[in-house]
## 1
Amino acid sequence: QKEVEQDPGPLSVPEGAIVSLNCTYSNSAFQYFMWYRQYSRKGPELLMYTYSSGNKEDGRFTAQVDKSSKYISLFIRDSQPSDSATYLCAMSALGGSEKLVFGKGMKLTVNP
Amino acid sequence: NAGVTQTPKFQVLKTGQSMTLQCAQDMNHNSMYWYRQDPGMGLRLIYYSASEGTTDKGEVPNGYNVSRLNKREFSLRLESAAPSQTSVYFCASSVGGVRELFFGEGSRLTVL
């Protein structure tokens, strides 16, 4: 079993839809959970960062961590065509950024 | 504000040729990283430098060497390129620890 599993999609939704992106993981030591967004032919950029369990909200984006189920989610409300990108989850146990483990990324298209 | 700059953006090599990918950051970050991104494989760490003067292997270091030239610059060298090294290479930097990674725009390498 890989440490981090992410459905690669692709996922296509109409504008205004609520989008749910998910990752599961096997390493119970993971404490830091991130979501990166990567536009086509660009480098990834950090979207959300959560430490340990719980929810975090930033505008239309909500990150959730359920450590009991080893499951993290990113919700996008009122999705926009500008949200069309690949979304990568990443996670780490207590330690440096060199310990980050990335999911394979989910390609999202929001259709106008 | 340039952030993380990678050169070249595109390169085609023949098997056995050598080349160096250059990376520079202007954010005074301590840590720098080289990743490769392949379809279906996600981001994989090749080498990293936690601080000036140190380098360490990541998940997939074989066939590569790195040099942390100074605090700003971190280069990746392919001594004898192989078709399996065809990939998109990303340089990233961070303040240090589990912090936000800032990525460059990528270098697309094809080895024939």
## 2
Amino acid sequence: ILNVEQSPQSLHVQEGDSTNFTCSFPSSNFYALHWYRWETAKSPEALFVMTLNGDEKKKGRISATLNTKEGYSYLYIKGSQPEDSATYLCAFERNTDKLIFGTGTRLQVFP
Amino acid sequence: DGGITQSPKYLFRKEGQNVTLSCEQNLNHDAMYWYRQDPGQGLRLIYYSQIVNDFQKGDIAEGYSVSREKKESFPLTVTSAQKNPTAFYLCASSKTGTPEAFFGQGTRLTVV
């Protein structure tokens, strides 16, 4: 059984704070690492898909890095806003086209 | 608008009854997936299908069945053999060669 672990499980920050969380995954047979953002009562939405060691992706105030050799990815949010409140899921993809999800990090940003 | 639709949003069933959850997509995606979420756990893969008339078991397929008679549709049946059916079920689809998956809004199944 493959384990994808995310930490912390939940996070509460003040508006304007920057924050980051971690996704750990098996480093063997890596194909891709996905980040999703899941707001309450909505569908998960894809943020990033990263495939190469050292990849860095950015979308507005959110960015992600990838280290496939040691099996981790960081997601950063700069200057958090209340609308960033959501659960952030990472998913590991081997060369079998199956996505294996972590438990998510629940972020709450207080105004 | 293109998208993936799950119905119903909430479903209640008596223990021992089979129940079928609907998932339809009009994105022309080849692959479709069913995931289950329980409190404190990530999304776990139940079944997936890469092409019409073919599907594969995921990590927790026991007590579930699926069919893929049409590209647009991938219904999931929760059978009476599933010991803990109460959960949140998410359906997803993706295009072959494209890593990004699109999700429905989920069905919350409660078995009493």
